[in-house]
Structures are given as structure tokens and as C-alpha cells.
Amino acid sequence: MVSVNLDKVTEFGKIKDIWTDDDDQSGLLEFVNNVVMNMNMFDEKNNNGYGIMLPSLSDIYVLVSTPDFPFDQIKNTHNTSMEKFSLSNKQFVLGYIWLCPWKLKKENYAPYHFIKFIDSRISGLNIAKYMIDKYEECDEECVLFPYEIDSKACGYWKKYLHKSYDIKSKNDLQKMITDFDFKTGDIKWDSLNELF
What we know:
Oligomer: single chain
Largest sheet: 5 strands, mixed
Order of helices and strands: HEHHEHEEHEHHH
CATH class: Alpha Beta
Helix content: 25-40%
Structural class: alpha+beta
Mean pLDDT: 85
Radius of gyration: 17 Å
Number of strands: 5
Number of helices: 8
Strand order of the largest sheet: 1-2-3-4-5
Strand content: 15-25%
């Protein structure tokens, strides 16, 4: 497996801050066409197509490749179809975070921001965790949590919470929910709770 230093070969930020009028737009167009406007109802990975992200498009956080990104090395070592990468080696969207429009502020805690959906488009590079870390670095006053964890994503979030918050059991999860003062409606983690 190839090791990639994402700090050296990617850029992270909101779509409106990454692409300017002078930039090559091919990476953004590929993302809009193949993810945002994906109309294929038989595509199992199509969670956010059909234009539902369009109203929030400019505020979606993306991790994009720079010209130094090692696509050739990844093509041979990761279980990823590389056809979609052929359009643009510059500013190709490797992953994205679509945030909920609200933040939650609890007394004595940093504000919580919630993920509506997060996805990485290349497996094996820990892109989702990297994006969460970058987001929290950019806004040091916040903590980023998933709002809703569905059955397809609970495996990922179980591993993430184990590594990031040492959550190993249902009791640990309940303690975390209590410690962060989450109330009914703040989060929808029933599927994750059932996994423990």
C-alpha cells in the first residue's frame, strides 16, 4: 500500500475558496457531474446525487489534489477505479464534507459542528479522518461530529470513535454522549449504538 503525505499533495477548504475564475475548473466539473448531479438510481454509492447538494455547493468542504498527487502509484496499489481521475490531475476532489447548517453550543464546551455527509473517493488513504482533522484545525474552537449515523456508515464511525475518543463499548458510547451533553435530537446514532 502506498503511503501518501496528504499535507504535501492536497488542499482543503470550501469549494468557493479553492476554485477561482482563473483556475482550471475540470476537477470541480467532474465532481459536480459525477457526484452532485449523479442521477443513476442504481449506483449504490450515490448518496448525495440528484442535485440535493446543489444549494450548499459553494460551502461544501473538499480535499483536492495538487499536481504532485501520486495518482500513478495509487492506481496500482489501491482498490480504486482510476478512470474518474483521468480528467484532472489538478484539483481533483478526493473527498468532501457536507455540513449541517447548524452548530450546537453547550455551556463549558467548544461549539459542535455536525456532518451531514462525508465521503472519500479513494480508499485506504484515511481521507475522511484527515478532512475532519483539517476542519478542526481550521476552526480550533469547534469539534466535528456526525449528525446521523446510518447502518452503512456505522462501521466507519465505530472505528473513528474508538481511535479518536477511546470508545470501546456501549457504556463508553453512552458516557461520551452524556459527557458531551448531547440530547435527543442533537444526534441520531441509534444504528451505531446497536453495533456495540
